[in-house]
Amino acid sequence: TWIGTGRKSCPLCPEEKFKACYSHKLRRHLQNLHWKVYVEFEGQKMCICHLPCRQLKSSLGSDQAQGRLVAHYHCVVCSVTIARKTDMISHLKRHINKGETEASYSGSSDVPFEDPVPGGQAYEIMKELGTNVQLLPNHTTPQKTDTYFSRKMKTNRQLVFCSLAVLAEDRNPLECLDAFGATGIMGLQWAKHLHNSVKVTINDINEACVKMIKENCHLNHIRVEGNRTGRQLDGAGDADSPIASVEVVKMDANVIMHLRPFDYIHLDPFGTAVNYLDAAFRNVRNLGIVSVTSTDAGSLYSKSLNVTLRHYGCQIVRTEYYRELAARMVLASVARAAARCNKGIEVLLAVALEHFVLVVVRVLRGPTQADESAKKLRQLLHCQWCEERVFLKPGSMVEENLYRQLPCQCHGSMPGKTAVELGPLWAGPLFNTGFLRRMLVAAVQHNMEDIQPLVKTLICEADCTTLKPFPVPGYSALSNQVECGVVIKTLQKVEEADTSDQSGKRKTTGEESGNVLKKIKADTSLEHPAFYYSIHRHSIRGMNMPKLNKFLQYLTEAGFRVSRTHFDPTGVRTDATLAQFKEVLTKYSVPTYSSAPQSSAAGSDRRQTL
């Protein structure tokens, strides 16, 4: 910044700390203070900064705030501010270990906001799946920013994208809604990669978010549409013409879902999504898809039981299978919301990871389908001693002793009440194998290498087998297109065979929807077993248990269906009871000190001889 004639101020120091001076003094100041302690990464040098870049608490006074300002570095990858040089070097090494070596551009915000960015904050350009979005420095703190963004949700965004890509193959054009846009990255990825096969609507109730979404649209050369008219792009062959178009709406999510029908709706509020389920199912089209992301881990993972009862109407306790319990609890809320609108659901995907629970369901219109879905909501009987569990049998008959339904014998050997009733929970399957296979093809087509291992695990889990459905090798540019085309045709036939009449086409007659339901009933024998057991939780004391893959092989040889599960890396999904599970585990476990008894016996013989 020029001040006066021939004088410059330091771009990395506040004016009250270093006044404007001539260029030779400024150069000496930069060399001795800023450039001398730089950190280099991928050919870029990060100099130390003395500007008030960090977000300070508004409760502190101005004198205290100025006293807390310290020199710091800006990470070129994630734009975080770190005070010490050694800490910044360690931070960059963690980025390298994660494979995050692509530097982001960070500069002064020249975005034409009506309300300028406070304090001249810097913004970061972040790239994910070929889509650029600009972020504010405090984008990871929802309490301090409107445009919240989390890098930890990348897996969630890619799973949602693949589910939309599968539906887009069957319906064209497809009207889809991102009800909580924030930065708009999810809707922009849909429009940028699926092009004219989808009509994307990005909604957010916050004015700042809407402005940020529109700026991110221009950043990715995507045209912003104010209404549905004229969505066809003119001049598609020009290099400067927009590659796609989206509609950006400022409206409450419940209002827009009540006003307009959609084929695909994604709900990802900050926290629970139960407040938006009724509106989502009111206008979603028949055989459309609703995906719900819940991030209220405290209530889902049994840490805040009062909040769980208030939001989901479920009674739960902390168990070894708490993640699957959370997924079934969310699905129960989804099924009840759909039934209130005379709609049933078919679960296509349910994923519960550390930071979120994602469920993807297909909507089946009609009271018959709604009744069938409601019948899959059951209570779960959970033994508090051995953690055996079983869904209670449906029916209105009063049973004298519910403990008889449990395979374990803890009630006979332990005093008092040994089991509790949990739920109501979703008792149906959590996966659709044909849909997951098509999602894997979509992940390969769009180079989503991060989620391919997860989707493969889900496919094995859906079939309850340790065998891989089919390998996905590293494709070359040409073979990728050829092999993907063959796999797509094969998997479409598999999908038609597995779930006929569920291709996503609009159907209005009750007979066709009834055929869908009959097919689902016929496939119930192929459902995967409910829940899983942790091999470490049920290990025998003083015994070395076998490796997990070996143990899966032993269970298979014993005649049980078995697979690994994404819910728990040490979990085993099987149709064996807990007693049978422990029996096989005990059979193939080796004593920890197998040589100790022999050595002690030899010592006693030696003493007798002497």
From TrEMBL:
<dbReference type="GO" id="GO:0000049">
    <property type="term" value="F:tRNA binding"/>
</dbReference>
<comment type="similarity">
    <text>Belongs to the class I-like SAM-binding methyltransferase superfamily. Trm1 family.</text>
</comment>
<dbReference type="InterPro" id="IPR002905">
    <property type="entry name" value="Trm1"/>
</dbReference>
<keyword id="KW-0808">Transferase</keyword>
<dbReference type="InterPro" id="IPR042296">
    <property type="entry name" value="tRNA_met_Trm1_C"/>
</dbReference>
<dbReference type="Pfam" id="PF02005">
    <property type="entry name" value="TRM"/>
</dbReference>
<keyword id="KW-0489">Methyltransferase</keyword>
<keyword id="KW-0597">Phosphoprotein</keyword>
<keyword id="KW-0832">Ubl conjugation</keyword>
<keyword id="KW-1017">Isopeptide bond</keyword>
<dbReference type="GO" id="GO:0005730">
    <property type="term" value="C:nucleolus"/>
</dbReference>
<dbReference type="GO" id="GO:0002940">
    <property type="term" value="P:tRNA N2-guanine methylation"/>
</dbReference>
<dbReference type="InterPro" id="IPR013087">
    <property type="entry name" value="Znf_C2H2_type"/>
</dbReference>
<keyword id="KW-0862">Zinc</keyword>
<protein>
    <recommendedName>
        <fullName>tRNA (guanine(26)-N(2))-dimethyltransferase</fullName>
        <ecNumber>2.1.1.216</ecNumber>
    </recommendedName>
</protein>
<keyword id="KW-0863">Zinc-finger</keyword>
<dbReference type="GO" id="GO:0160104">
    <property type="term" value="F:tRNA (guanine(26)-N2)-dimethyltransferase activity"/>
</dbReference>
<dbReference type="InterPro" id="IPR029063">
    <property type="entry name" value="SAM-dependent_MTases_sf"/>
</dbReference>
<feature type="domain" description="C2H2-type">
    <location>
        <begin position="73"/>
        <end position="100"/>
    </location>
</feature>
<keyword id="KW-0820">tRNA-binding</keyword>
<keyword id="KW-0949">S-adenosyl-L-methionine</keyword>
<keyword id="KW-0819">tRNA processing</keyword>
<keyword id="KW-0694">RNA-binding</keyword>
<dbReference type="GO" id="GO:0008270">
    <property type="term" value="F:zinc ion binding"/>
</dbReference>
<keyword id="KW-0479">Metal-binding</keyword>
<keyword id="KW-0539">Nucleus</keyword>
